[in-house]
Amino acid sequence: MSEIKANKLSPATGVNLQLGDASDVITIPASATIVNSGTATGFGGGGVLQVKQFRKLSTIYDNGTSDTVMAAPFDGSATLTPASAGNYIRCEYHVATDHGNAWRSTYVRLQWSTDGGSTYYGLSASSMGQYNTSTMHGNSMNVGGMFNPNVTSAVKVRVVLNSHSAGNVTRWGQYNNEGADSSNIAPVTDNGVVSVGHYLILTELDASVCSTADTA
């Protein structure tokens, strides 16, 4: 086996450089490291490419009774930029809601935008209702889904809430209250780390492992 030693390989003409031919096996030795400072494409089967988590460390007060955008980081400030236009984004949103000492009813919708927030598209929704005349803990909603934004620019994801006009949820991300929902209560802290009542996770998935189907 012959060996070529060089610090750099460059194309003789143009800007394309090819290693080997079709069906050749290019071997990367054990313990070697490939450092990518550009864009890696065409590898396929990549699965999970990047994951971003956005946590809110305190309660959000919002008593909106019509479509209202949730406060940061659930207001579209949570973004993910796909490496390829063909890749998908998977979303996961969880929120605990306070209960008060009367009935509460609300729903939330998960939306996404590719044009800086000028236009938002629907993804999925969840709702909850509860009734009680004495103290109790609250309720929670989980909503998510997957979509192909078909861009390589920042994709914004936000949550829109809509509560009943006479029984609206007011404390979002609050789960440890057993009385009236008249004040924000700090979440539980375990060994210095906050156990949050709401978070949003965005995951980029390689197009080769994804598909979606809508049924009327």
Search tags:
five-stranded antiparallel beta sheet, 216 residues, mainly beta, 0% helix, 13 strands, Jelly Rolls, four-stranded antiparallel beta sheet
Structure report:
This protein is mainly beta and 216 residues long. It has a single domain (48-209), classed as Sandwich (Jelly Rolls), CATH 2.60.120.1340. It contains no helices and 13 strands. It has strands spanning 48-55, 60-61, 68-69, 75-80, 88-97, 104-113, 121-130, 139-147, 155-163, 171-172, 189-190, 193-194, 198-205. Strands 3, 4, 6, 7 and 9 form a 5-stranded antiparallel beta sheet that branches. Strand 11 (189-190) and strand 12 (193-194) form a beta hairpin. The mean pLDDT is 90.
The end-to-end span amounts to 61 Å
Poorly predicted sequence stretches spanning 5 or more consecutive residues: none
Counted beta strands: 13
Question: Can you give the mean pLDDT?
Answer: 90
Short description:
This protein has 216 residues and is an all-beta fold. It has strands at residues 48-55, 60-61, 68-69, 75-80, 88-97, 104-113, 121-130, 139-147, 155-163, 171-172, 189-190, 193-194, 198-205.
